[in-house]
Design a protein that fits this description.
Blueprint: E1 4-8, H1 15-26, E2 29-32, H2 33-43, H3 46-57, H4 63-75, E3 81-84, H5 90-102, E4 109-114, H6 117-127, H7 134-148, H8 150-157, E5 161-165, H9 170-181
Parallel strand pairs: 1-3, 1-4, 2-3, 4-5
Helix pairs in contact: 1-9, 2-3, 6-7
The structure holds adenosine-5'-diphosphate (ADP).
Length: 182
């Protein structure tokens, strides 16, 4: 069973839902950079203050800040993990590779959740988070296309990419993902 995983895909594809489900059933550490950043914002920390406006615009928070968050969690953890929302650009992917080399760990699979834009936007609008209004959503999709989508080729070249159809029920998609990890 593979237990060092990345979840990749556009906003609204359901990464968080599936990542949380899988992490619970397999006892993996679930690291969502989005959740961790939102917790910092809610706590009113210096880090949260720095991230808040950037997130509200749908832009990416600085690589250094996000990397520091991920590094501190992985450093302190020896078992399996699942990263959700990170890396989000090639700089972060390179930094992650370097961090994992220092930890003598390797990514075992990159799960790519694929879904049509129209469905993504519908899902995000019905979720109603602070950064889920129409204008910010379309900007987040644009940021995804420009900055995150290059990671598909990046991980395909490294023979790590596993695409999953992200339409259907939570259980159906969960079963597709589980089948890839065996
Ligand atoms: P979604 O997958 O719906 O876009 P996330 O919860 O993953 O939502 O992220 C929400 C916001 O948090 C992003 O739009 C971005 O501003 C910030 N963020 C999350 N992860 C990263 C990251 N790895 N690098 C930079 N910014 C990030």
């Amino acid at each position: 069973m593979k237990q060092r995983l990345l979840f990749l895909g556009p906003p609204g594809a359901g990464k968080g839902t599936q990542a949380q489900r899988l992490a619970e059933s397999q006892g993996l550490l679930h690291l969502s950079t989005g959740d961790l950043l939102r917790a910092e914002v809610a706590a009113g920390s210096a880090l949260g203050k720095e991230a808040e406006a950037v997130m509200a615009r749908g832009e990416l928070v600085s690589d250094a800040l996000v990397l520091a968050i991920v590094r501190s969690r992985l450093d302190a953890h020896s078992g399996g993990w699942l990263l959700d929302g990170f890396p989000r650009n090639v700089t972060q992917a390179d930094a992650l590779a370097q961090l994992l080399e220092q930890l003598s760990q390797q990514i075992e699979l990159v799960v790519l959740m694929e879904l049509d834009d129209a469905v993504l936007v519908q899902r995000l609008l019905s979720r109603g988070r602070a950064d889920d209004n129409e204008e910010v959503i379309s900007h987040r999709l644009e940021v995804y296309r420009q900055q995150t989508e290059p990671l598909i080729a990046y991980y395909r070249e490294r023979n790590l990419l596993a695409p999953v159809e992200a339409a259907g029920t939570v259980e159906q998609i969960g079963a597709r993902i589980a089948a890839l990890l065996a």
